[in-house]
Design brief:
alpha+beta, OB fold (Dihydrolipoamide Acetyltransferase, E2P), de novo design (two linked rop proteins)
């Protein structure tokens, strides 16, 4: 027996199905990741409009039946339009990376409200941002690790719990233990495992992004190509280690090619 349910959601992806319908994957506030069939969505006079576009923040109504892999969607309405995400290729690239990440790490029909809020808030601030859009992806990846249960530690030694105070005037490297998810002090630096070296300036950025209460503040940070590359490699190494089977982001590769052509 089916139950009619209504929940907020972000559209992660959508594909054509038969002649007139679509199948969409939603990340919902109440039920986690849910796939739904939307009959008639591709008809010329469809009531769904742009609500089924990836990155759309919507209110969705579907007939939920336990044990069914694909639910039937009856209504899908925009909650708040993110118009600027579709008008700027750079913004679109970051937005698509966010939803692809969530699609990759989320389990079917498993609620995670903190992850839902992180996704919606990130798309919202990205929509209004005016510069340094890539910074939001680093912020998102850091906080995604937290909501998935493997929060990194940038202030204490992960082995002995000693406070690690970095001197921003001193250019040195710090050992980050990927397996245990934190820094190592000089006394514990011989701890075996998967280590990643972090420069002082990068550690400072990671701390600021992780401790900041303002997501919008990340756009104020100017970074050179080397720093961006270091952050990207570190965060991706950390996520891939802790999320089994995490794949490289197709959206990033596609948009890189588009920007090269442009």
């Amino acid at each position: 027996m089916s139950t009619i349910v209504k929940t907020e959601a972000v559209v992660l992806k959508a594909m054509k199905y038969r002649e007139t319908s679509k199948i969409a994957t939603f990340y919902t506030r109440q039920f986690g990741k849910v796939a739904g069939i939307i009959k008639g969505a591709r008809r010329a006079k469809s009531m769904f409009g742009s609500s089924l576009e990836p990155m759309s923040y919507v209110s969705v109504v579907f007939y939920k039946k336990e044990g069914r892999e694909i639910q039937t969607v009856s209504h899908c309405d925009l909650m708040k339009p993110f118009h600027y995400l579709y008008q700027d290729l750079d913004k679109m690239a970051i937005g698509m990376a966010l939803i692809e990440l969530v699609n990759n790490v989320a389990h079917e029909q498993e609620q995670n409200i903190p992850m839902f809020k992180l996704l919606v808030n990130s798309l919202n601030v990205l929509n209004s941002a005016t510069k340094n859009y890539q910074n939001l992806l680093y912020y998102f990846e850091l906080h995604l690790a937290k909501v998935l249960g493997f929060e990194p530690s940038f202030n204490r030694c992960v082995s002995c719990k000693k406070m690690i105070i970095s001197d921003t005037a001193e250019d040195r490297k710090y050992r980050f233990h990927i397996d245990k998810g934190g820094l190592l002090c000089d006394r514990c630096k011989i701890l075996p495992g998967n280590l990643n070296m972090i420069q002082t300036d990068v550690l400072k950025i990671l701390r600021q992004m992780f401790e900041s209460n303002s997501m919008e503040s990340v756009f104020e940070k100017e970074m050179n190509i080397k720093t961006k590359s270091t952050l990207e490699n570190f965060l991706w190494t950390y996520l891939q280690y802790h999320v089994t089977g995490l794949r490289s982001l197709k959206s990033q590769k596609v948009f890189s090619k588009i920007m090269d052509i442009a």
